[in-house]
C-alpha cells in the first residue's frame, strides 16, 4: 500500500536483478526511473513495457555510475519529473575475476566506482529530499560477498564489504527522519553478471564451465539452486513498505543458506 504513488530510482536496472526491482516496484504502483547500459532500442522497449504492464510512468536515465555529476542528475531527474526520489535502489554492479597479483588496476577502480562510490554519490544526492519529506527507503544490493570472501574477487568483495559499512552509517544518520537504509545480500542469482564470469572463473581455477557452475557457484549454496531475480525483488518491495519502517542498517541475506555455513 505504502509504495503506491511513490517514486523509485533503480540503478543498473536495464538487466538482471535491477530490472526485476523496477518491475516489482511498478507492479506496486510506483513510478520508476530505470538506469543502466545497453542497446538503446532494447532499453526503450523495457521502459515502455513497464508503463504498459503496470499503468505507471517510467523514465530512463542514462547516467554512467562512474560519473558523479550524472549520478546527481539521475536523482534530480526523478525529483523534477516525478516530484521525488522516495525509494533509491543502488544496484548497478560489475564483476572481474582474477588472481590478486594480476588483477587489472583499472578494473579495481571501476568496480570500486560502480559497486561502491556510485551508491555513496546517489545516497548523497537523494537524502536531502528524503529528509525534507520525512520518508525514504534506501536499498543497496550488496551480496553474500558483503559478509564473506571468495578467492579471485578482491575488488568485488572489498566493494561489497564497503557497501555494508555505508549502509550502517547512512541508517544511523537518517534514523530519525523516516528513512531506512538496508542492504540485500543475494547469493548466486542467475543473471548476465553471473553468466559472464563463468569463463574467467573456469580459467582461473583450471576447470570446465560446467564444473564452475556445479562445484564453485552452487557448491557455495546449500540449496543447490540459483536464487531468482523475482525473489530478490520481493524482498526489496517488503523493505520499501511501511511494515519495514523499523528495519534499518541491516544486511538481509537471500542466499540459499550460503553464509550460514
Ligand atoms: P547484470 O549484469 O544483469 O546487471 C548489472 C546492471 O548494472 C546492468 O543494468 C548494467 O547496465 C548496469 N551497469 C553496469 N555498469 C554500469 C555503469 N557504469 N553505469 C550504469 N549502469 C551500469 O547483473 P546482476 O546480477 O543483476 O547484478 C545487479 C547487482 O546485484 C550488482 O550490484 C551485483 O553485484 C549484485 N549481485 C548479483 C548477484 C548474482 O548472483 N547475480 C549476487 C549478489 C549480488
Characteristic key phrases:
single chain; 261 residues; alpha/beta; Rossmann fold; seven-stranded parallel β-sheet; 8 helices; 7 strands; 13% strand; globular; binds nicotinamide-adenine-dinucleotide
Summarize the structure.
The protein is an alpha/beta fold and 261 residues long. It has helices at residues 16-27, 40-54, 68-82, 105-133, 154-174, 192-205, 209-217, 229-240; strands spanning 7-10, 31-35, 58-61, 87-90, 136-141, 179-186, 251-254. It is 49% helix and 13% strand.
Question: How would you describe this structure to a colleague?
Answer:
It contains eight helices and seven strands, in the order βαβαβαβαβαβαααβ. It has a seven-stranded parallel beta sheet with strand order 3-2-1-4-5-6-7, sandwiched between helices. α1 runs parallel beside α2 (40-54) and α6 crosses α7. The radius of gyration is 18 Å and the shape is globular. The protein has one domain: Rossmann fold (3-Layer(aba) Sandwich), CATH 3.40.50. The model has no long low-confidence stretch (mean pLDDT 96). By secondary structure, it is α/β, with parallel strands linked by helices. Bound molecules: nicotinamide-adenine-dinucleotide (NAD).
Distinct ligands: nicotinamide-adenine-dinucleotide
**Oligomeric category:** single chain
Q: Please mark out the parts with pLDDT under 50 across 5 or more consecutive residues, or reply none.
A: none
CATH class: Alpha Beta
Total beta-strand segments: 7
Report strand %: 5-15%
CATH architecture: 3-Layer(aba) Sandwich
Q: What is the C-alpha radius of gyration, as a whole number of Å? A: 18 Å
Categorize the overall geometry: globular
By helix and strand content, what is the structural category? alpha/beta
| CATH topology call | Rossmann fold
- The CA-CA distance between the termini, in Å, is 36 Å
CATH superfamily annotation: NAD(P)-binding Rossmann-like Domain
- Please give the domain count: 1
Number of separate helices = 8
Main sheet? Answer: 7 strands, parallel
Give the proportion of residues in helices.
Answer: 40-55%
